[in-house]
Amino acid sequence: MGGHTSRQVLRLCEAAGLGGADSADYARTLLAALGPAAERPLALPPSADCFLSDDHTPVEFSLSFVPGAAPTLRVLLEPGFGADGLAANGRSGLRAVRAMARRWGFGTRRLDELEDLFFPPAPEGPLALWCALELLPGGVPKVKVYLNPAAAGQERSADTVREALHRLGHRQAFAALPEGDRHLFFALDLGAWEKPRAKVYLTHRNLSATAAAGLSRMDGGPTRSEVERFFRTAAGHGTAAGTGGRDSPAGTGPSLHRRPGITCHAFTETGSARPSGFTLHIPVRDYARHDGEALDRAVAVLRRHGMDPAPLVRALSAVTARRPEDGVGLIAYLALVHQQGRPPRITAYVSSEAYAVRPPAAEVRVPAGAAL
Ligand code: TRP
């Protein structure tokens, strides 16, 4: 598994224009972060269910686009994959993050301060710790850590998020969050960030474009029409090709009925109650018949924002030899990202598919309400 995913990193780095030395370094970094789980042959099924990707590969790639510059390549991974249980998974994740901190010389104080909240003795939930690396030129990545608000029980997740924000100095942040169904992740930027963020991810069942447009709480964020347009294009609503969308009540248009939409609210200023960032993630894979369709939507969204889609096309061929039409899920999510003081970004999440490819959906329209 490590061989496969680190070769993917190598090829993606090359496709993203990183130098040979950086690319080789990052491929080795991925192997080191995966630990012993990397050695498990791909012919064996994944050693555990991994919530990180549909086929349980503990690795997912993403490309984050801005206008007028090359996209940034990132890799999300579960360092504790293959550990015996969630508690051991979390401990192994913490060790991996601390090893990165020593190697690249950054502090982990913000994470250390939250350890008791997110790493109880008998944790619950779909993950313990994930980390993401932004693979920048120069061989030193930026690091992000994803924690599980439901670690001490789903019913405690709101309290856990409120307390974590409070400890980081964001005393009024929790009250600024919009309604959601679940607190999915609590994420921290670690290392040399200009403005490290604390981020709260919320899920939204049956989300419609209109409802999504009302979820940003940041000042100077996206306009309603920008969010609605992004939503409709990414979800395939309003196109003949769209398979998604059951009409939601109250005339808000088709909604995400198979897999929820996700919003992310980023906090940087402790002096302000409001978030300084907003992201909307659309799980395009559950609303497209195949990745050819998902790619067309990504291309449309990128072009509309003045971004060159060519690196995404190259990235897909770097991770797999299959044709986009021959499966669905290679592009897992499309996201619209707003952060104060920065141009809007578009992020495409690309699956490793180390273990499995989901077959394309049938050509016929999936009946409304069909659950996957
Ligand atoms: N696989 C999970 C999901 O689809 C978690 C996840 C992985 C995710 N990458 C993501 C969620 C990117 C949001 C954005 O929900």
Explain the overall architecture:
This protein has eleven helices and 13 strands. With about 375 residues, the chain is an alpha+beta fold. It has one domain. A ten-stranded antiparallel β-barrel has the order 1-2-3-4-5-6-10-11-12-13, surrounded by seven helices. A hairpin with a 7-residue loop joins β3 and β4 (about 140-145). The two termini are about 25 Å apart. The model is unreliable at about 240-245 (pLDDT under 50). Bound molecules: tryptophan. Tryptophan binds near residues 51, 53, 262, 281 and 349.
Highlighted features:
10-stranded antiparallel beta barrel; 3-stranded antiparallel β-sheet; single chain; 11 helices; 21% strand; alpha+beta; binds tryptophan
Write the layout of secondary structure elements.
Elements: H1 2-15, H2 20-34, E1 59-65, E2 72-77, H3 86-104, H4 109-112, H5 115-118, E3 129-134, E4 142-147, H6 157-167, H7 173-176, E5 182-190, E6 198-204, E7 207-208, H8 209-212, H9 224-235, E8 246-247, E9 254-256, E10 261-267, E11 277-282, H10 291-304, H11 310-319, E12 331-339, E13 345-351
Antiparallel strand pairs: 1-2, 1-13, 2-3, 3-4, 4-5, 5-6, 6-10, 7-9, 8-9, 10-11, 11-12, 12-13
Bound molecules: tryptophan.
The site of tryptophan (TRP) has 9 residues, from loops.
